[in-house]
Amino acid sequence: MKHHDAKPMKGLGSGVLEIVSRHDGDTYRAVYAVRFRDTLYVLHAFQKKARKGIATSRQDLDLIKRRLKAAQNHFDGADGKGEGHGHR
Prior knowledge:
Layout: E1 7-8, E2 16-23, E3 26-36, E4 39-48, H1 58-76
Antiparallel strand pairs: 1-2, 2-3, 3-4
């Protein structure tokens, strides 16, 4: 499930990948998780706003981390309903 341009997103552990694309002078990023068996979670897709540097903003990183945690909880069925994919 790895896109040919995907690279590991630093600081988030294995199975979290980032695709960077450029179009008309703008940069776009998509971050997704493949660490869950047979399940892909898109954690964030956004246009990079800063013109300097390549670092992802703290605000975007915090959002990605929150969504990764929510994806893990969903996969594990932590919503209390036992409906997560981890309970097959």
